[in-house]
Amino acid sequence: MGIPGSANPMLFGGAAAYQINQSLRFNSADSAYLNRTPASAGNRKTWTWSGWVKNSKQEAFPNQKALFGVKDDSDNHFRILFLGANGTLQINQTVSGSNTTSLITAQVFRDFSAWWHICLAVDTSQSTASDRFKLYVNGTQVTAFTTATYQAQGTDTWVSSAEAHYISRHTSATRITSTAI
Description:
Distance between the termini: 17 Å
Low-confidence stretches: 1-15, 172-181
Number of strands: 13
CATH topology: Jelly Rolls
Shape: globular
């Protein structure tokens, strides 16, 4: 097994055949995360986030497991996370304390042995609201949401801003225990 919270590759069962090179594991008991603050803003309307993730245990509400977050501020942020006890996936952008985007999947992610490839394609210039945020899990587009609020056409997201970008951290969220990106 690799060292939790380190940049060592994950090893499963100690066998080299199960080693995942260039992967990271974040232990929820640690405070490990990755962060980067771009020197200047990029394209905040069109971008893609993609990663292989594993939800390794169920947390009691209100615990959340952050996959990705931007801006360390509870009133202004973007985040992708697993929600507490129900095991759904949430994409959320908040501006001045108001949700401009809120997507919560109807699909649950409670198979703690499974890895998922999650891809979020964003293009806020699209005229159809549901085309502005397209979520894919294992190559299949997710279209069933219990909550689906999309931000206004042509507006900026926090992603690609000159704000702090995090993997495995968000202000109000706990860390995900295993992730490979």
